[in-house]
Here is the input.
Amino acid sequence: MNLRTKIVALAVAPLVVALVLVALAVRHQERELARREQALFEQAAMAQHRNELRSYVELALSTVRPLYDSGADDEAARAEALRRLSALDYGDNGYFFVYDLQGRALMHSRQPELVGQDLWELRDQAGRFTIQDLIGRAKAGGGYVEYQWRKPSSAQTAPKLGYVIALPRWNWMVGTGLYLDDIHGVMQTLDRQMNSNVSATMLWIAGIAALGIGVVSAGGLALNLSEHRVAEAKLRLLARQVVQSQEDERGHLARELHDGTSQTLVSAKLLIESAVDALEREQQPAPPALGRALGRLNDTLAEVRRISHRLRPALLDTLGLPAALERLGAEFGEEGGAAVAVTVQGEARELPEDVKTALFRVTQEALTNVRKHSRARQVRIGLAFDQRNLRLEIRDDGTGFDVEGTQLDPKRGIGLRNMRERIAAIGGQLSIRSSAGDGTRISAAVPMHRLEAA
Here is the structure.
């Protein structure tokens, strides 16, 4: 460790430790303060709601108190009392309800379908008996109950604070309630504000730490000799040049392997295969050396292609995906494969590197399978740009194969699995259909949002 590093480390370490401790302390204090504010707000809001509910119920009782205090117990008096209560409401979600003490709904202005129903066994989402709790509180002299109920304005279940009292002579429970989701909303807003304040404070502390570290580092750098600074600058420049040179060389090597060596090996392979076929047609045994040479040539060609593709498909960088597919199809035909027709529909656009690489690889794999297995005479490659998707389709008129059986066999279908993995990695979908009469069709679709250039 050189002198500069030691000085910087000795100066920065205590500063960083101190700022971390300050940040932790500030974070703890802000959270504690936010929790206290939330608790105070909740207490104040609940107290206000309780007072409101009590006032609402007393106001409602004042409208039916003359009928109740008159001693009348006939149906007409009770019906008139229910009519008066049903006419009372406040706000979008404020209303009164009446149940008998056995749990049967007698009046509900916002949910008239409940009237006449026995709701004694009604439970909320937590499994609590809602009506039983309300009636129990009313019998105990009246009071407040928190429960869950459907909110008229949104038709969604929400927490509610209710206040109920009993009219024993009429066997009634009368009550009303206020929904608490507004309090919960404010609590969530306060929590978000608290998190935002904590994040802002942490950013300020991080900025101060960065500034302090920068000042200390600058002081440490000032202690170095000018030759040392020049040497380090040259070393950094050399490192960047080496990295860039490596990247350039990888691209150059991939192009050389793909455009030169690979084509030469394919030509030699086709010549050897033609020679073997000619000898077999003339009923002459092929020399064993030809078979061994063909096997080694196949291995060499596979290795060259693997290295080239792993480094970088040069066609994508120079021509783009549509032109690269056309070039790939032309090369496939020149190498002795089936005739390939490439069509492009829609307005071509620049694609992200991962998208065009994946589609190019899928096409390569499909053409490899055509050469090896399908004995097709014609292959159609279609690339379509529309408003929702980029679609790639490869069709051949070959012998076809059992798609499901190939995918289930762990020793077969490696290329098909690679295709699916490549398309899935870019957020697309791949479908494969094959039959003896119609050949094979491979379709890939990539959503439009993945086509935004990186």
